[in-house]
Amino acid sequence: MDRKLASERGAEQKALAARWSIATEAMEALAGARSLEAITHVLRAFARRAVGADGIAVVLRDEDQCHYIAEDSMEPLWAGQRFPASSCVSGWAMENNRTAVIPDVFDDERVPVEAYRTTFVRSMVMVPIGGVEPIAALGAYWSEFAQPTDNEIALLEALARAASTALENGRLFASLEALNEQLERRVRERTAELERSQDSLRQVQKLDMLGQLTGHVAHDFNNLLMPIVGGLDLILSGKRTPESIERHATIAMQAAESAQTLVQRLLTFARRQPLTAKAVDLPDLLGGMGALLASTLGPRIALSVDLQPLLPPVRADAHQLEVALLNLAVNGRDAMPDGGALSIRAEARQSRLPSVLAPGRYVCLTVSDTGAGMTPAVRAAAMEPFFTTKPSGHGTGLGLSMVHGLAAQLGGTVEIDSVVGQGTSVRLWLPVERAPAERPDPPVVEEGAKARSGRVLLVDDNDLVRNSTREMLVEMGYEVVDTDRAERALGMIESGDRPDILITDHIMPGMTGVELALRLRADHPQIALLIISGYEGVDLIAPDITRLSKPFRQNHLQACIAAARAQAA
């Protein structure tokens, strides 16, 4: 008899251990649940086996009702149904935040007897889920009248506590995710704000630079105007031989082309545009800056450029790099009020790099002057925004900080060496770009009769420019009709007077040249379009329309007409 009792007791202990093992597995699953759906899924999968019940149900509080959202049962119970919270056991358990233990469902005032009469349920336990203010309940049901055991109640309550913890964790994680999303949004907004501020600071620095350059450029521009005015004056005097007329005209043309290059560089420098990193050929870039650098430095400062042969292209924004170099040149000039020398050197390096750079190939671009130099304290603060040693009104203190910011954006860095009384060297490190530098395609030039025939509608509000361009076109063999307003040109075309080619200025009163060209491209795509302008932003507004910058020569005009006609063909 004792042996039989011991055997039964051993079997009960094994069964209880198995149930707690199932409950432990369920709790581990609940620890990873982050939503009510996931918690319900775990309870439905484990609770009935853990408690040893004939059925379980998960009930969700929905305002003043109890919604039976899931069940695992020997027979269907109330899944999907709703009952008033005031007249069901789950409502009582949630309202009182207490476990309801019911040995006989037909002998307890908390039980809506009619709802249970048609089911197998004869005894039950209902446990609230959700901490201080329960939002759900877990019920276990048996088909026999009996007092649920302490172990059965303890197992069910343990599962309910784990579910409550999972719900709180889910709420916490949801709050953290919402906070993280808010922080990320604020970081994005702050980053965008900083980028706008940096763009504004760059523009302020460029405007400051333009102000400093005005006097130097005006001096050089007057020098360029002198041979133009003098040569034309001699030609118009009527007392010159054909040879001297040709000589004076040639000199005037050379001066005009130099002035054109200087003006275009200034317009490019002043232009506002986003950072666009691509392959930049330094010899080409510095060659194009020669006249502007020489004008900036003035006649008392000797400029030298020494570039390593076969220098690889760098990854940079050509426009911003020009601004950076011009900033360094201005700083060098201002450090040499009595004259001196400024050198620009460049070499490719793969070793002995600054510690802040990632391994790789770089070009070290060094701008050195023989000026006053910097003290250690000034050198340490030189790249801080708004730091300057110049007198009030002679600098914003943004030059070196902009150079440093540009280098950092491109994956490079800036170093400064300086000795008081000997001069300063600024090393701008830029990463090598593997892709080759872009080179513009040669202009398309038409040949034969087609190149010198056709009807042109010329639009320009400046009488002198319009008359000069008309004379060029007539001499080239075109039939020309001209007007000073885009609206008049559009009216002529809409009335049936359609040209082969439209040549228009951009900035005019009323409708602009770009607006006119875009309208014609949509309504009359067979008309070739050419925009002539001294405004540097046209290529950003309408990049796919052929453009010719003022001033231009006859051969440039003819090449662009050919390109426009090829585009319209």
Strands, helices and their partners?
Layout: H1 2-31, H2 36-51, E1 55-62, E2 65-73, E3 82-84, H3 89-96, E4 100-102, H4 113-117, E5 123-129, E6 136-142, H5 150-236, H6 242-270, E7 278-280, H7 282-297, E8 301-307, E9 314-316, H8 318-334, E10 340-349, E11 362-369, H9 376-381, H10 399-409, E12 413-419, E13 423-431, E14 455-459, H11 463-476, E15 479-483, H12 486-494, E16 501-505, H13 513-523, E17 528-533, H14 538-541, E18 547-549, H15 554-568
Parallel strand pairs: 8-10, 14-15, 14-16, 16-17, 17-18
Antiparallel strand pairs: 1-2, 1-6, 2-3, 4-5, 5-6, 7-9, 10-11, 11-13, 12-13
Helix pairs in contact: 1-2, 1-5, 2-5, 5-6, 5-7, 6-7, 7-8, 8-10
Keywords: Coiled coil, Kinase, Phosphoprotein, Transferase
Protein name: histidine kinase
Modified residues (4-aspartylphosphate): 505
